[in-house]
Amino acid sequence: MRLQKYLAACGVASRRAAEKLIDAGRVAVNGETASIGQTIDPDADDVTVDGRSLRQDEKIYIVLNKPANTVTTARDTHGRKTVLDLVEGAKARVFPVGRLDMDVEGVLLMMNDGELAHRLIHPSYQIDKTYIACVQGHVQPAALEKLAAGVKLEDGMTAPTRVEVLKNGRSSTLLRLTLHEGRKREVKRMCAAVGHPIRSLQRVSFGGIDVEGLRPGEWRYMTAVEVAHLRELTEL
Predict the structure, then answer these.
(1) Is 134 in contact with 24 (CB distance < 8 Å)?
(2) How confident is the model at residue 62 (pLDDT cuts 50, 70, 90)?
């Protein structure tokens, strides 16, 4: 097996990120610094990253209802609670698929399947992500049309977005937005760009996977049907 594929299978990183680890000299095979393209025998060779030995764990797929005030990272230098702290009882080490801002709640997928995780966040697979946003002000049709058609941000135009009004009031509006891009803080920036900054944001679906029945901070293992669905979406 190629080394970068093995690293992805162990949940260390996506194949592309694994290549960067190898190129940086952080990966060794049987005590020798590894090289990109190297092949290994998973049953016989000892692979280490930063001196830590790896083993190919059973694939684990988790859905977490991420609460606010939790960071989407493996560890935090400021001592804040991380999403990994919330899944300490999992059968194997997992990592988050993409990121949610600290103040954003809702669906966060976590797994140790590097190849699937990489495809789920890669823009070419156009995986739908649905959000419920409470925004400031009474949203007019013109603003909805801009969101739907694409909004010009500092890093370019956004892709078309499915948007609907769930509740429209004088001081705030509740929107449902479905998009497949994954730019940093994209939903917040889009809404602000059309004059309606976000008050609160929740992701309610990622690739059709939701957190129904889970309170904030709770998690569950994905069903075999859900995993198969994600693999089909990403052509695995």
Answers:
(1) no
(2) very high
Q: In angstroms, how far is the first alpha carbon of the chain from the final one?
A: 17
Domains of the chain listed by start with CATH number: 3-53 (3.10.290.10), 61-123+208-233 (3.30.70.580), 128-206 (3.30.70.1560)
Is residue 113 a contact partner of residue 59, using CB atoms and an 8 Å limit? Answer: yes
Catalytic residues: 101
- Give the distance between the most distant pair of CA atoms in the chain: 66
Residue 2 DSSP one-character state: B
Residue position matching structure tokens 């996506």: 14
Q: Which among 13, 226, 42, 210 is positioned nearest to 113, based on CA atoms?
A: 13
- Strand segments, DSSP code E, in 40-114 are 47-49, 52-53, 61-66, 95-96, 105-111
Joined tokens for residue 201: 């944001």
pLDDT tens digits for 23-52? 999 999 999 999 998 999 877 888 999 888
pLDDT of residue 57: 65
Which pLDDT tens digit goes with each residue over 5-23?
Answer: 888 777 677 778 889 999 9
Give, in order, the Cα–Cα distances in Å from 92 to each of 21, 196, 219.
22, 42, 14
In degrees, rounded to 5, the angle at the alpha carbon of residue 60 between the alpha carbons of residues 125 and 52 is 100
Indicate the SS3 state at residue 66. strand
What is the rounded distance in angstroms from the CA atom of residue 228 to the CA atom of residue 213?
21
Instruction: Return the structure tokens found at 80.
Output: 């804040």
Q: Is 28 helix (H, G, I), strand (E, B) or coil?
A: strand
Distance CA 228, CA 236 (A): 9
Distance between CA atoms of residues 212 and 227, nearest Å = 17
